[in-house]
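Hey team,

Filing this mostly as a record. A colleague (T.K.) asked me to run one chain through the structure pipeline before their review meeting, and I want the input and output archived in the tracker in case anyone asks later how it was produced. No errors, nothing strange. Just documentation.

Input sequence:
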Amino acid sequence: MRIATIGAGKMAHTLGSLWVAAGHEVYVGARRAAEGQRVGNEIGGEGGAIENGLADADVVLLSVPGTAAAEVAATAAAGDSINGKVLIDCSNALGHQAFAAPPDSFVLEIPAVAETVAQAAPSANVVKAFNLLAAEVWSSPAREFDGQHLLVPVCGDDDTAVLTTSQLVTDAGGHPIRAGNLTRARYAESTTAFIMGLWFAGHDARAMLPPLAATAAR
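Output structure:
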């Protein structure tokens, strides 16, 4: 696949490098073309201005702060360059003071980013994925913890877009799970804020829930 990123930050760099290693073509797009080119070169792909990578892309990774995601998606959609394409939103709209006094400071400025992105770019097939974990987790070689493979929830309305995104999750070393339609992405975003608040307050959030075998879920 040919993947273009909108944004050249940590997630674009980390996921882009994993996808290049898996055999995909990756173009890193940035507002400053030189930055996109630098990151693209670092991961073994290409890079430059955002608009130069979108036309030939099969999949677009929207890797910008959640508070700006809808506006950025609308700009891309206005040029018809993401029409009919898979648009993966990996963002969270955490407040600027999230790390100030956890857990209470971890709040969402926008409660449903993926849905606002879909409204801003109705011609794209928006999928929510990769928002639960920081880039540092993906840059680590570890994909199993206490014998469990790393699960990545994928939310979307278009089955083909979900399958495509799920393949990219697998190629990055994660295990994709279909987590419902795009309307459920808001719960993934809220979970991120809640869990991160606990992590940065020094609590192991995994200990809140027993393993599946010990639950009543059947």
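Quick notes for T.K.: Helices lie at 10-21, 33-43, 50-54, 66-78, 113-120, 135-139, 159-171, 185-200. The radius of gyration is 17 Å.
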